[in-house]
Known about the structure:
Strand order of the largest sheet: 1-2-3-4-5-6-7-9-11-12-13-14-15-16
Mean pLDDT: 81
Helix content: 10-25%
Amino acid sequence: MKKLILYMLMLTAAVRLSAQDESANSQYLVNPYFVNPGAAGMNGLHNFHGSYRTALTTLPNNPTTYYVSYDGLIGKRVGMGAMLMNDKVASLNKYKMQLSYAYNWVASEGLKMGIGLNAEFHQLNLDKKAGDNSFQQPGDPAILAALDGAQYFDATAGIYGVYKDKLSFGVSVPNLIRARLNKNTDAEESAFATAFQYFTANVGYRFDVKDYDFAVEPSVMVRKSYGSSVITDLNVKTYFLKNTLMAGGTLRVIDRETLVGLLLGAKFGALSLYYNYDVSFQQTQRYHSGAHEFSVGFEFAGKKKMDAQEEEKKMMEANPPMPAK
């Protein structure tokens, strides 16, 4: 009985984590496009990222997350992006597909900005095997509806900026439209009921210590997303050996829960590998071994890509700032 009660408690916590979607994920530390469509194509390269995250490890049916994304600069100012993601905990599945458009421009000397929009498709459903559970009543309409799942259209808008490759900042607004797509389901709220109710905001600054080939980048991220409480991340990343090695950490606060994360990374030319591990200070931590996240990134320049500084200079010459009166 104790094991059953413990498992139910862990499952409840897992569903809560699953509902947080990308809010519980640390990918934005190496891939800002993950939470902000305005970052698509900002670095002038074609960027591919993939990740696998497993939380509440050592417990049965623990939450897992998979995602792959692409973002890149098409032409001189247009950024495009796409992402596929799957969250799974026990028999509950959530799928997310998105396409992104961003417009990049030079706002002033050294300041690059991007504004973007996501069009998203979400699906939530139970695994088919959940319908074979011997503890449920055959033909239960709630179970049958959950097996069919619910499909939603959603949208996210964001603005992102980088100043002299040191200061980075951004604000995105998810869940602008949450419209139910499939019919014959229970009544839903207005499609705009969640508009401007949630946000993601971040700011970070990189300090270079050139004499020691070393850099440190503290940052802050504050998020409120659908199905989760306010999440505050205090981050720090350090870079060594001409940015080929990276180590960092995160202090995350969710309600009364505090988590600590460790981030390690290595860059091999165009290929980057990352590992993230986090644990909480709650009593439930004794029953599992935290969360592990493995990710890979690959970037390359397009055939027509110009040097970033040269492009910025040309754009400034074409659009000179107004003289002061």
